[in-house]
Amino acid sequence: TRSTRPQRLLNAVRKHATRGDPQSVISAIDHFCRHSEWAMNIGDEKGSILDSVVSELNPEKVLELGTYCGYSTVRIARLLPPGARLITLEFNADYAAIARQVIAWAGLEDRVQLVEGASEDWIPRMKEHFGIETFDFVFLDHWKDRYLPDTKLMEDCGLLRKGTVLLADNVICPGVPDYLQYVRNSLSYKSCYFKSHLEYTKAEDGLEKSVFLG
Ligand SMILES: O=C(CSCCNC(=O)c1cc(-c2ccc(F)cc2)cc(O)c1O)c1ccc(O)c(O)c1
Ligand SMILES: [Mg+2]
Q: Who lines ligand 1 at CB under 6 A?
């Protein structure tokens, strides 16, 4: 049977990246996506913005919605102190299987917990299942029509605290108009837009950083 794009991406990591070296995993995936096959990783340009937000925040408890092949998981986890925890949710079992191997190749499995399933099923179970009180940082990169309902669900489940930072990918392309309208007009958020480009292309895209005010 033909290989899938995520499998070919993993092969490129195994071929070109060094085990235990997260930066080499990131570079191998970016090279593959620029020179072989486009894939929906956040990429190097928006990835640098992600890095700066994470480095400034120094979060202990991180939630990622949408793992895909684990590229942004590796970007975030490599910046976390060893005691910190990143929980990443992926709906697609095939993507999750590849992501586990990418995260392991980077040597970051000790601070990452990959959970397979739907975000709306897992968000209400964060406290009792993972012992999480609140998250310090949430990265949204899953189904674009789930950003808003899942944000409201996180509010309702008490998973956000004063100062929790939400960072949303793809707010221009593919776009998340209902989410943008909400975080930009709600009195519960301080929001700002980081203009960038769709990964590995010249098309406009950007990240929206929203601080929950409680
Ligand atoms: O794909 C999903 C949903 S999760 C991935 C969400 N992310 C995106 O869709 C996404 C898309 C684009 C993008 C794609 C085509 C363009 F022309 C332009 C932009 C860019 C991104 O950065 C993204 O994050 C899924 C889940 C479970 C399943 O079973 C399943 O078959 C599929
Ligand atoms: Mg994305």
A: 40, 66, 68, 91-92, 141-143, 169-170, 173-174, 198-199
Question: Is 45 in contact with 199 (CB distance < 8 Å)?
Answer: yes
Q: Does the model's ipTM exceed the 0.90 cut?
A: yes
CA 111–ligand 1 middle distance (angstroms):
25
| 145, amino acid identity | D
- Residue 144 in tokens: 């674009």
Alpha carbon 172 to its chain centroid, in Å, reads: 17
| Threshold 0.80, pTM exceeds | yes
- Ligand number, closest to the Cα atom of 175: 1
* DSSP three-state, residue 20: coil
Is the CB of residue 145 less than 8 Å from the CB of residue 111? Answer: no
Give the catalytic positions in this structure.
Answer: 141, 144, 169-170, 199
Q: How far apart are CA 184 and CA 179, in angstroms?
A: 8
- pLDDT, tens digit, 9 for 90 and up, residues 148-193: 999 999 999 999 999 999 999 999 999 999 999 999 999 999 999 9
